[in-house]
Every structure is written in structure tokens, then in C-alpha cells.
Design goal:
- The complex is a heterodimer of chains A (100) and B (177).
- Chain A has 3 helices and no strands.
- Chain A is mainly alpha-helical and 100 residues long.
- Chain A has one domain: Orthogonal Bundle (Helix Hairpins), CATH 1.10.287.
- The model of chain A has no long low-confidence stretch (mean pLDDT 89).
- Chain B is extended.
- Chain B has 7 helices and no strands.
- By secondary structure, chain B is mostly helical.
- The chains are: A mainly alpha (100), B mainly alpha (177).
- At the A-B interface, α1, α2 and α3 of A face α1, α2, α3, α4 and α5 of B.
Chain lengths: 100, 177
């Protein structure tokens, strides 16, 4: 079996790429995709550790994370559509209504 | 799975994850994201999580990504021309990501965290064992999930619909011009 270090490193790198995407990109859709990347990195860590422990709990939690991700993307895309309808932009810097 | 396959899949996952954040066209970002999700699904299957791996392909790479695709089509986005975002932000983001990776390496790879390989029970990762856990220990969470999904469906419909009496600003502008 592959060492846990390898899987955790892979998970950490994908998570960091997701964080970098949220910071760097200003397109709301791509920021949203980066959030999905981070969720997946965490799922990978859950599956790897659950497998090493011989426990099904990790897989059950991944199942719940997927459900929450589905709900999150439905609501998030609804927000993006209504934002685009009112402001005609998907650029995060253009949305300054609540900026101090 | 042989170890070199893990290395290959890991490299593929990282390259396509980088593709998500460097592509200018949102459709290309989405395709790279689907590539990452598929690779991670194969890694799930390699880690004996067969059901969750297939669920990842069907639910994530299938349903959720099609939702993204529809939204990209609906918004009729243009490819971003010119530089995307500020240079300082890019440098800050890259440095922050590098620091985060270093920190996570130190947190996740000390020897005491390397759990011993325990013998897996028979049928580990099968549909029966997943369902057995889901409908006994996690029954309440599972039922609450249905309420969450219902709330999400109602919420997204309420968010995306046009309120009666408010005109679409684009239509109003077209009529005015």
C-alpha cells in the first residue's frame, strides 16, 4: 500500500492550488471551481486515512461532503445567475456594493 | 494498484488542478476541473473506496459539472482578454499557496501520524458496508441531508427567478436604446 505521506502531500497540494485559485482569480465562476477543488482535496485525505484505519467512517463523511457540495453549487450558481442578471458581471472586483 | 500508477495519477491531478486556475476561458477551467475530479475518483477506487469513487464520477463530474456548464452557457461569458487580476495579488496568492503547502507538509507528515495499517474487515468499501454505516450510525445525518437538499433546491429557484414587477435591466436598456 502506498504510504500515507504521499496521499496527504497530494491532498495538501490540491488544497493549496484551490486556495491560490480563490485568491488569484477574479472570475466568480472560477473562484467557485477552486472551492470545489478544495473540497475534493479534503475528500482525498478522508478516504486515505479511513482506508489506513480500516474504518468506513471516512467514506461516509465523503458521501456527506459530496451532498453538501451539490447543495452549495446549486445555491452558489443561483446567486451567480441573479448577480449577472442585475449587474451583468462575473468579475468579483466589480461587485462593490457592500465594500467599506 | 502499483505505486507508479499512484505517482502518475497524482501528477495528473496536480497538473489539471493547475489548469483550473490558469486557464482564461471558464469552459477550459471546467474541463480541467472535470479531469481533476476523474483522477481523484480513480485514486478513491485505488484506495478501496469503490462506491464513493463511482459516486464521485456520477454526482460530481457528471451532475454538478453539467450544472456549471449550463450556467457558463447561460451567462454567455467571453474569454478574458488581457491580464486577469492584479500582479500583486498573483504574487501574494502564489506565496500564500506555497506557505500553505509547506505548513500542511509539516502538519500532515510527522511519524506519529503514520497510522498502522489495520486489517480491513471483509467487504470494505462495498455498497453494503457503506449503506450499513449510513443507515445505522449516521441515520440522523442522512435524514437531515434530505432537508438540506430540499432547502437548497427551493433557495436556488427563489434566487434565480425574476421577481414580478422588476424588469430585466438588459431588456430595459435595449428598449431604451
Amino acid at each position: 500500500m502506498i504510504p500515507l505521506t504521499y496521499m496527504m502531500s497530494l491532498s495538501a497540494m490540491i488544497f493549496a492550488i484551490g486556495v491560490a485559485g480563490v485568491i488569484i482569480r477574479r472570475n466568480i465562476l472560477v473562484m467557485f471551481m477552486s472551492i470545489e477543488l478544495m473540497l475534493n482535496a479534503v475528500n482525498l485525505a478522508f478516504i486515505a486515512i479511513g482506508n489506513r484505519l480500516g474504518s468506513m467512517d471516512g467514506q461516509v463523511i465523503v458521501f456527506f461532503v459530496m451532498t453538501v457540495a451539490a447543495a452549495e453549487s446549486a445555491v452558489g450558481l443561483g446567486i451567480i445567475i441573479s448577480t449577472f442578471r442585475n449587474r451583468e458581471t462575473v468579475h468579483a472586483d466589480d461587485l462593490t456594493l457592500m465594500r467599506w | 494498484m502499483p505505486p507508479f500508477l499512484y505517482i502518475f495519477l497524482g501528477a495528473l491531478a496536480i497538473v489539471s488542478a493547475l489548469g483550473v486556475i490558469v486557464q482564461r476561458n471558464p469552459i477550459h477551467s471546467l474541463l480541467a476541473l472535470i479531469g481533476t475530479l476523474m483522477t481523484v475518483a480513480v485514486l478513491f477506487i485505488g484506495e478501496d473506496a469503490v462506491v464513493v469513487g463511482f459516486l464521485q464520477i456520477i454526482v460530481y463530474a457528471g451532475a454538478i459539472m453539467v450544472l456549471f456548464l449550463f450556467v457558463i452557457w447561460l451567462l454567455n461569458l467571453q474569454v478574458e482578454a488581457g491580464p486577469t487580476g492584479h500582479l500583486a495579488l498573483k504574487i501574494f496568492g502564489s506565496v500564500a499557496a506555497a506557505l500553505l503547502v509547506t505548513e500542511l507538509f509539516f502538519i500532515l507528515t510527522p511519524p506519529h501520524l503514520q497510522v498502522k495499517f489495520t486489517h480491513q474487515p471483509a467487504g470494505y468499501g462495498s455498497l453494503a458496508s457503506l449503506a450499513g454505516k449510513l443507515f445505522t450510525d449516521y441515520l440522523v445525518a442522512f435524514e437531515v441531508t434530505s432537508v438540506l437538499l430540499l432547502a437548497a433546491v427551493v433557495g436556488s429557484v427563489a434566487l434565480a427567478r425574476k421577481l414580478p414587477g422588476t424588469d430585466d435591466p438588459r431588456v430595459a436598456r435595449k428598449i431604451a436604446s
